[in-house]
Fold this protein.
Amino acid sequence: MFDIIPATIPLPVALAALILAAILIGVSKSGFAGSTAILAVPLVANVIPVKQTLGFLLPLLILGDIAAVIQHRHHNSWPHFRWITIGGVIGVILATLLLVILVSHTQALALLLQFLVGLLCMIAVAFQFIRQMGGPLPHVPASPKAGYACGILAGFVSTLTNAAGPITTLYMLEQKLSKQIFTSTTVLIFLTLNLVKVPTYLAFGFISFNAMWLTLICLPAVPIGSLIGIWMHHRVPEKVFLYIIYLATLAASFSLLYKAIVSIL
């Protein structure tokens, strides 16, 4: 089950990183420091191959999404959910077609995914940092067409990197919804898009036997992370915690970019 962990990385170090990623997903889904899960993607991608990273993380994200949907149910904005998820399905299909084109170029596909994960996670952190600092954000029209476009981009990026949360958030922030409706609708969108990606991940071998074993080992860490997030809610300054996460994400993402660029050169 540990065959996908490179021999150059000590097994205890790799397992610690994978368990930490699961805990961060749980913390994020608890409602505390909602951007915390962004670190999980580059963190895991630095200890196992990127293709396996996507398959390892997806079940953990789905578990966290299910818990969040149960917690925030009955307060959804169905029009916004419909617009983004319809676009999201189209985005997943487009990403799947790209994978079909690249599937015979195994090395190129691996490098592309590694590069995209690093780059898009860095962009996501920049977006989150600007939002936390109260800086100006790109204006997204609050319209159905913008919702469909947001969904297409989110579905495409999510399929390739599991890191499309900021795209959906950027659109949803423009809707001026109450915090309860915003949260409930957003987590339901995430759950739906993650479930839609499952057939693609199975078809391309992202969800492998070895990756699933690692996922099962780390699965209990997700609810533990949720409990930690609830405990931290009134005890830890959220902004300080987020800035630490952002810096760690930048470091992990830069490492992925560096490895991809060096491999290409």
Observations:
- The CA atoms of residues 128 and 166 lie 7 Å apart.
- The chain has eleven helices and no strands.
- The longest helix spans residues 106-132.
- Residues 11-259 form one domain.
